[in-house]
């Protein structure tokens, strides 16, 4: 997808990271996988970033497509600091 196509999905676009964080791909504690992601994804994007982007994107896309009952089976918990 191009950046212009990604911007069409405002909720997902707004969730992107605003700062570069070199350790964004690290899992800080098992079971807590919610993290920021950079857009557009690139060859140095981590799998964790890709999963977080994909879940956000699919949730927004399915709502726009009228698939309101769709829910991701991937549950991403956020580590409370």
Give an overview of the whole structure:
The chain has three helices and no strands. The model has no long low-confidence stretch (mean pLDDT 81). By secondary structure, the protein is mainly alpha-helical. The protein has one domain. It is globular and about 35 Å long. Helix content is 35%, strand content 0%.
Topology:
Layout: H1 3-7, H2 10-14, H3 47-64
Task: Give the number of domains.
Answer: 1
Structural class: mainly alpha
- How big a fraction of the residues is strand? under 5%
Largest sheet: none
Oligomer: single chain
Q: Report the span from N to C terminus.
A: 34 Å
| Secondary structure tally: strands | 0
Q: Note the total helix count.
A: 3
Radius of gyration: 13 Å
The 3D shape can be described as globular
């Amino acid at each position: 997808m191009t950046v212009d196509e990604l911007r069409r999905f405002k909720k997902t676009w707004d969730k992107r990271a605003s700062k570069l964080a070199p350790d964004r791909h690290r899992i800080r504690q098992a079971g807590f996988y919610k993290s920021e992601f950079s857009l557009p994804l690139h060859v140095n994007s981590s799998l964790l970033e890709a999963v977080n982007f994909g879940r956000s994107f699919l949730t927004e896309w399915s709502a726009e497509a009228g698939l309101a009952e769709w829910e991701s089976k991937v549950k991403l918990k956020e580590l409370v600091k």
